Structure formats: structure tokens, C-alpha cells
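Weekly modeling sync, notes
Attendees: AB, CL, MP (scribe)

Item 1: holo prediction request
CL wants a bound-state model with pyridoxal-5'-phosphate before deciding which constructs to order. AB pointed out that an apo prediction alone won't tell us much about the pocket. Agreed to run with the ligand included and paste results into these notes for async review.

Input as submitted:
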Amino acid sequence: MTPPSAVWHPFTQHGLEEPIPLVARAEGAILHTADGSRIIDAISSWWVTTHGHCHPRIMAAIARQAQQLGQIIFAGWTHQPAEELARRLVEIAPRPLDYVFYSDSGSTSVEVALKMALGFWANRGSPRHRIIVMQHSYHGDTFGGMSVGERGVFNRAYQALLFDVTTIPFPREGAEQATLDALEQACAAGDAAVFIVEPLVLGAGGMLVYPPQVLAQMHAICARHGVLFIADEVMTGWGRTGTLFACEQAGVVPDIMCLSKGLTGGAVPLAVTLASPLLYEAHYSQDRAKQFFHSSSYTANPIGCAAALANLDVWRDEPVMERIGLLAERQAEGLAMLAATPGLTSPRQCGTIIAVDFEVCDTGYLAGIAPRLMAFFAERGVLLRPLGNTVYVMPPYCISSEDLAAVHGVIAEAAGVFAA
Ligand SMILES: *Cc1c(COP(=O)(O)O)cnc(C)c1O
């Protein structure tokens, strides 16, 4: 039984009084609830946990840093973990993303990216201010993030206050040219400032996948028109799509790149917005009025930076790429089985992520099927959180073959129960 709680949970309708399990501890891909259940975390605790829960190396780094320096003002002051992390991020990111601006969540990294891009044009004395976005995108729940994301039930109450953007269609298979044409047209308009996009996979929009070639073509169009290009790799970064960053598969170097979620291995909150010299130089001046006006209280929190450094050590010292390759193979096998299961459609994969749609009459985010599916999976010891009638699997890279097979199995079982 759930005890009475003072907590107001995110994306939760408390009026439905659905059970909210109490998690006591976690290791690898497994959560242990207070009442003794073992749950397979098949969505990496909302896409953050990459190497597994409580990775010893990351947790030890956090403990060490907590003894040294827990927090420090970052405007006009600095510290070693932030300096070292910035250097190492620049080394592994596509070149030349040479500057690192710290913040504390994916949403804030997007706000920072948008402000950098608009500040770039403002500091040049240009009137360009229009932001181009892709249909079905998700970039966070702050006002900027909502404005550049898909409009829907999530943000209906705020719609009147969201700023105006130009939306190009998602590049559905066979209709890629319509996307490119729309982007070309939007970029040609004199006020186009920046295009923001999730590379290769639109996550919250339903795990919609498009090919690297389209990403490369979109980037080329923006470059041709001098429109800035933001890659929101908050979800796709850190190996999810099979490469460290999704942009690599298209040979694309964005002007700005947002990273969070797996930046600390999913252990503590931290985000970065990486910027090319173009952006930095547009704010570099003897004139204080041209500086970048953004900060969070916890900008570059030392404990977060120490966790991120340990994450980079894990990437350097452990066979993470091999794990990702194996996981992608096992996911492909599971997907083949699900694709052959009656009631499941649109099987798709990008790297370690797979998704299928349940054939039901009632689709969309509020589709009644999503919470019923979630409860069905939870009863069978699997944490999956469908997006409407889309069920996806995005596990930590350390998940065992047995646990992954069990996840694929409960999805197939659910198809027999729920699919129309
Ligand atoms: C999750 C996500 C965000 C928002 O990140 P938060 O840390 O939840 O604020 C932004 N963009 C993308 C692509 C995401 O998947």
C-alpha cells in the first residue's frame, strides 16, 4: 500500500490514485522496491542511466568530490572538475565545438542553446529571430522548450504564451523531400535564426526514427543559408544510437549541441551546451552588454562535474562500445520477434533503442492503453513507460541477456492481451 504522501509527482494524475512504488535501492539494470520486488529498468529511469544504476566508479567519484568542494559560485570563479570536464568534452565532441556552457538539466541546456543562438544574431545587430523546429519534437518542459516542441495535451494550458516558431514536417519514410523543401523555404525567409532538432530519433515524440542522410541534408541546408544548427542530443547522446553522439553518423558538426541525461552516467543532474567558436566570439567583446546573460545557481556543480568525469573514465576504460554493439544486436533479435507478433506494428530501431506500436483504436499520448500497459509490465517486474500506444525499450548497457529477453517477452505477452 502506498503511504499518504506530500509529494506532487511529475507527469502523474494523482486523482487516479495509481500505485507509486517506493524504490529502496538499485544496481545495474535492476531496481529493488521497498516491498521486496525486483524490477528490470527497461527505460534507464527515463533515459538517463547508461552504465547501470550505482556504477561504483561514478558513485566513488561523487563521494570523493563531496569531501572536497560541494558547490561554488561559477560566475567569475572556477574549479578543477569543471575545467577538466570541459577540456575532455571538447576532445570527444565533434570539432570545433570548443566551448562548454554548464547548466543543470536537458531543458536548461536547450534554453541556453536558444539564447546563445539569438544572442549571436542580436550581438551582430541582425534582426534574425525566427526559430525553426521539427514536428513531433521534444526539447523539455520550460517555456522555451515547450515553444520549440510539439504542441499538444502536455502544454495546452500554456499555449497562448508559447512563442511562435516555424515547424517543418517529420521526415517520414518516402516523404523526406517534403521536410527538406520546408526547411529550405523556412531558411530562405530573411528572419531565420536557428534550427533545433533531435538527431536521428525523436524521443518523447514516439521514438520516431529518421536516417543519418536526412540529418546531413538538413544541416547542409542550414549551413547554406547561414542558419545556426542546434543538435539536441540530450537523449541521443552517450551511445544510445550506437555511436557516442548521433550527429557522428551523419558527419554533422552542429553549431550548438545540448547534452545531459547520460552526461553523468545518469547518476546526478548536470547538463552542458557545447558551442562552436562562432557563438563564443559573437559574445566576446570589451562591452559587458554583449556577454552571455545566463546562469543557474548550480552552474557546473562540482559534484556533478566529478560524476561526469567518472563517466568519461568509464567510457575510456570499459568496453562500452562493445556492450552497445552487443545490446543493439540483442535488441534487433527481440525486435524481429516482436515484429512477427500479431497486434504490433511499425517496428523500428536506432542503435540500442527499439520501439513498436500497439494496434489499438485509441492512439495518442492519453490513449487509455498506456497506463494499463504500464501496470501490466510492472506486475511482471518490468519498468516500461509507453508513449501512447508506442512501447519502446531503452535499457542500461549492462542489462543481462536474460533480463532483456524477459522484457521482450512481456511486450509480446501484452500484445496478446491488449492489441486490437
Ligand atoms: C529529456 C529531454 C530534454 C529535457 O531534459 P530534462 O533533463 O528532462 O530537462 C530535452 N531534450 C530532449 C531531446 C530530451 O529527451
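Recorded for review: The chain has a mean pLDDT of 96.
Action items: CL to compare against the apo run; MP to circulate these notes.
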